[in-house]
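User: Let's play a game. I give you a shape written as tokens, and you guess the letters that built it. Ready? Here's round one.
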């Protein structure tokens, strides 16, 4: 499976959660699959989905799922010790690890070589780290939500992108409707 197929499969699970989605193609894919006011689409801040999601989880009680990519996590490795040392049991970091920088042309990442993000997360002190294959994402994500424990999920999948348009919604509108969903 590729990332868009995973997002399509887990969209019904995400629908009732607050979701902070990684920049570029992942946000575009989620927007196309199931645009929802509870989705915060990152349009230009690579590596910050996990940090923003953690901050949101710490600030309120609803479940927050950050959808991030291996390339983005690698650009902001400082987020993993921050997550480990600021436990929010309403927070799930879902890292879709396709071994590539998908939004910039599928150049290989080090996660597709020797670096194992699950081991990095554990070394940083994250206590509940789960690795799964793409086909098991829905089951693993639902179990993490049900556990009510902060969880880092690393999903191993194939690299690849679908063709789709950019999100034309104004970033101010995205922010406003998401803030309203957080308040509701």
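Assistant: Ready! My guess for every position:
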């Amino acid at each position: 499976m590729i990332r868009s197929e995973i997002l399509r499969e887990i969209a019904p699970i995400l629908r009732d959660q607050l979701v902070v989605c990684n920049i570029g193609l992942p946000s575009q894919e989620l927007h196309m699959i199931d645009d929802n006011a509870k989705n915060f689409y990152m349009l230009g801040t690579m590596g910050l989905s996990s940090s923003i999601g953690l901050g949101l989880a710490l600030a309120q009680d609803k479940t927050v799922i950050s959808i991030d990519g291996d390339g983005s996590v690698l650009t902001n490795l400082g987020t993993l010790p921050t997550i480990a040392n600021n436990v929010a049991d309403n927070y799930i970091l879902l890292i879709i690890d396709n071994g590539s920088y998908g939004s910039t042309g599928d150049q290989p990442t080090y996660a597709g070589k020797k670096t194992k993000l699950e081991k990095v997360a554990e070394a940083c002190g994250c206590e509940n780290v789960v690795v799964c294959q793409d086909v098991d994402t829905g089951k693993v994500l639902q179990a993490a939500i049900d556990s009510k424990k902060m969880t880092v999920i690393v999903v191993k999948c194939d690299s690849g992108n679908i063709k789709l348009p950019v999100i034309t919604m104004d970033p101010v509108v995205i922010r406003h409707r998401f803030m309203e969903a957080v308040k509701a």
